[in-house]
Design a protein that fits this description.
The complex is a heterodimer of chains A (339) and B (327). By secondary structure, chain A is an alpha/beta fold. Helix content of chain A is 34%, strand content 20%. Chain A folds into two domains: 201 residues, no CATH class; 125 residues, no CATH class. Chain A is built from twelve helices and eleven strands. Chain A is globular, with a radius of gyration of 21 Å. Chain B folds into two domains: 152 residues, no CATH class; 122 residues, no CATH class. In chain B, 32% of the residues lie in helices and 13% in strands. Chain B is built from twelve helices and eight strands. In chain B, the strands form two sheets. In chain B, strands 1, 2, 3, 4 and 5 form a five-stranded mixed sheet that branches. In chain B, α8 packs across α10. Chain B starts with a helix and ends in a 27-residue tail after the last helix. The chains are: A alpha/beta (339), B alpha/beta (327).
Chain lengths: 339, 327
């Protein structure tokens, strides 16, 4: 597939052609005080210069609150939610895109989730290679790369004056054709320059963990003091899980206002006290020790057992945002030492 | 000023006591300009303790956050003390927790750490965006000194202090069982400029301001969980029947959540600023809390957590309380 380039001064036109017709365009923008993916209404607000968004783009495919159907009290009919528009997710970082491929496993496991899959099919993901990995990025340690193409339809690389666009799938190819008017064929030198940047970025990733042996052995540390030590300072808030691009737990609630009801699913967090709390009052993970243990084991052991891939893409968000500096790499390191 | 070596010595003595279960202090964080809470069970663990301008965490939170598991039959509950280090602002939380009977005086051992202000993570990370390996910091005279990989750098204090420290009037602990350090002079004054700025707007402008902020909330509840004064065992926000605040994350429910949180802190917020510090989407929660603090100060001449003898505001009815604002 042909690699094309987009001159930076044509960026606004490029955005305009991506949001033509019914197609929705999502890109990183400041919402309140935080950077996150939101529908583009004003091209000048699109911010591709920052590293990762605070909230990962999983929120487009698996929204924090999603109405599964609506109903009226006393009625017997279910109203399906609206059919979604097709869309383009622009500027997803390779780790976040890889996370989608990982989460695909879960949403197509015992049941093919229609809501998630519809969004996956209808959206084209245009990734942006990381030229400057952050302090807590560790994607290469968990099978990723600052220029990984997994989960992407197009990989975009920022060069000095241009963006290089490399289509990777049929959807990506179609997208590149749709912006032909504002792009041109890339020169051989451009591609070399991009590869150089990818290599530089790879070398810049400072933090590492050797994951070999962790998935099969982590459950052996079930009663290790490590979990209590980690849980001591844990606040039990939802930052690490809500901002995680691979965390996918949800809860289902019926919400009624007047006579109108809706069945929704919303993000849940294994760090919350009420997570999987039984109706009897029994809590299978009664304290933060068990909850912390679950979070790490789920990502680095149970998920691997089921789907043969670590459910962590090394984006570093849980490390960056944890209010008490609980650092997943430190936990894994301690686990390795204890094994 | 606190002598960190002296602090470690006191910590060592404290954890060696038979009646102390563990001690909570701070340690250097794993990266950048971070510190982290440090739980000390053995005297040798005190080596990692620090007290520096990075020690933002209000450790009083961990007094009420400590999980009490059912005691097995035939065993006595562990009644040993929890020792903790407190800055001035943190000590106000301890004072109020005691006044509210959330904790018992016999159950704690307080080590006071007079404080010259902690840094605002966001300000310091904006100043040094090339954040990488762990950087230590210390107080200079009116400055904060960082040990950066590129060398030592001294930054004027007012440039990077957390907002709560700029207006701080209680840098010295108001309750302490140990701590033999020189008190620091009060540098801050508080005219509630941040609150007045919001108050100046008309209702529509104020609504727009908060609507925008609340819309971005992801309901991770870190503001609630980190708050030393939010310690109800059964939080109204966790209730499902009746579901006072719906789980749906939207502007309406988020607003209900934030207003409930703020109201439950009226006359109880001790202004440690932890809620605002931990918010991953940077909602300026202290503006909201401080609006209520300002009201309480004006209407009842009451300030929470500063007087160990004082009753909590809701328990301190006086016949001469002003009534001119009651409709």
């Amino acid at each position: 597939m042909e690699i094309i380039k987009l001159s930076k001064d044509k960026f606004a036109d490029f955005l305009a052609s991506l949001s033509e017709g019914e197609q929705k365009l999502y890109a990183p923008q400041w919402v309140g005080e935080s950077l996150r993916f939101a529908p583009v209404t004003d091209s000048s607000k699109v911010e591709l210069g920052m590293a990762n968004t605070t909230v990962p783009p999983k929120s487009i495919f698996f929204p924090q609150t999603e109405t599964l159907y609506r109903y009226e009290l006393g009625g017997t009919e279910m109203q399906q939610p609206q059919v979604r528009d097709t869309g383009v997710v622009l500027g997803a970082r390779p780790c976040d895109a890889r996370a989608l491929v990982i989460v695909d496993n879960l949403f197509n496991w015992d049941l093919e989730d229609p809501y998630y899959n519809e969004q996956r099919v209808k959206n084209t993901v245009v990734g942006l290679a990381c030229n400057n990995p952050c302090a807590n990025c560790f994607c290469p340690s968990v099978g990723g790369d600052p220029a990984s193409t997994e989960g992407l339809d197009v990989l975009m690389t920022e060069l000095e004056d241009v963006y290089l666009l490399q289509p990777l799938t049929e959807k990506g190819q179609k997208l590149c054709q749709s912006v032909a008017a504002v792009t041109e064929k890339a020169a051989a030198g451009d591609q070399d320059a991009a590869e150089n940047l990818h290599q530089q970025a790879r070398e810049q990733v400072a933090r590492k963990i050797e994951t070999e042996g962790i998935p099969e052995n982590l459950p052996k540390l079930w009663e290790n003091t490590l979990w209590q030590e980690t849980a001591n300072s844990c606040l039990g808030c939802g930052i690490c899980t809500f901002l995680c691009p691979t965390c996918h737990c949800f809860d289902i609630q019926d919400e009624v206002e007047g006579i109108e009801g809706r069945r929704c699913r919303m993000w849940d967090s294994c760090m919350f006290k009420e997570y999987t709390l039984h109706a009897s009052g029994h809590n299978p993970r009664p304290t933060r020790r068990e909850r912390t243990r679950n979070r790490i084991n789920h990502k680095y052991s149970y998920f691997v057992d089921k789907f043969d891939v670590i459910a962590c893409v090394g984006c570093g968000r849980c490390i960056n945002y944890c209010p008490v500096n609980i650092d997943i790499l430190e936990i894994l390191q301690q686990a390795k030492e204890a094994l | 000023m606190v002598d960190v070596e002296k602090l470690k010595e006191i910590a060592r003595e404290t954890v060696s006591r038979d009646d102390v279960k563990y001690l909570i202090g701070w340690r250097q964080g794993s990266f950048g300009f971070r510190a982290a809470p440090h739980f000390v069970n053995k005297p040798e663990d005190t080596d990692k303790l620090i007290f520096s301008p990075l020690c933002s965490h209000n450790l009083a939170t961990f007094l009420t956050l400590a999980e009490k598991l059912p005691v097995p039959r035939g065993q006595e509950p562990d009644s040993r003390k929890i020792a903790l280090m407190v800055k001035g602002c943190d000590s106000r939380a301890v004072v109020l927790q005691l006044a509210e009977k959330g904790i018992s005086r016999e159950g704690i051992y307080v080590i006071g750490c007079p404080c010259r202000g902690v840094v605002d993570q966001k300000k310091v990370e904006a100043k040094y965006p090339e954040m990488g390996e762990s950087v230590t910091a210390e107080w200079g005279k009116e400055t904060i000194i960082f040990d950066l990989p590129s060398g030592r750098e001294e930054v004027p204090r007012e440039e990077i202090l957390a907002g709560k420290c700029i207006t701080c009037r209680y840098p010295n602990p108001l309750i302490a069982d140990a701590g033999a350090w020189e008190e620091v002079a009060v540098w801050g004054t508080d005219d509630y400029a941040d609150v007045k700025e919001v108050e100046a707007g008309n209702p529509q402008e104020r609504w727009d301001f908060w609507e925008d902020k609340f819309a971005s909330c992801i309901r991770c509840y870190s503001c609630r969980n980190v708050c030393p004064m939010c310690y109800c065992e059964d939080c109204v926000l966790d209730r499902l029947n009746p579901e006072w605040v719906m789980r749906s994350v939207n502007t309406t429910e988020n607003t209900a959540f934030h207003l409930a949180r703020a109201f439950h802190l009226a006359g109880r917020c001790i202004e440690c600023g932890e809620c605002e510090r931990v918010c991953p989407v940077d909602i300026p929660l202290m503006k909201l809390n401080r609006k209520l603090t300002k009201e309480v100060r004006e209407k009842f001449e009451y300030e929470p957590g500063v007087d160990p003898e004082a009753k909590p505001l809701p328990a301190s009815y006086r016949p001469d309380d002003k009534e001119d604002f009651i409709l």
